[in-house]
Write the structure tokens for this entry.
Amino acid sequence: MLATGYATKRGRRAALVHYDAVHRKLRPRAGSRMTAILSGGAIPEVFDYRVRLEPEGAFIGTLNEDFAIESLPGDIFQLGNTSWRILQIGNGVVRVADAQGQPAFDAFLAGRGAVAQRRDERGRVEAARRRRRAAARAGAAAKGR
């Protein structure tokens, strides 16, 4: 990228430095200083996997890279209003089939595994925890008066 440039969606971009082989000098190209200051050298870590329906190959949507990498073939997740069963995870593409309404893992609760599938149970536990907290606060407030 520094010496040979790089390709973008809008075409080829110039290199940020130029090596003068005759004078054996390395010099910056115009604007490279501002590029270095603004970008900080960070590499974006955002990557989405395309979700394709098999066997048609129709585009369904996208999944976060972390979710796609941590998933296994056979896992069921929900995207939109439909549950999908993962058939294959490949080069930036997750191939899926309709899961026929089976309960799905919530794709947006990464790392929660089976807990995300038990929404009713989790809701009851959370409600009980909130009731206990409210009662404890009310008791503490009554003692403080």
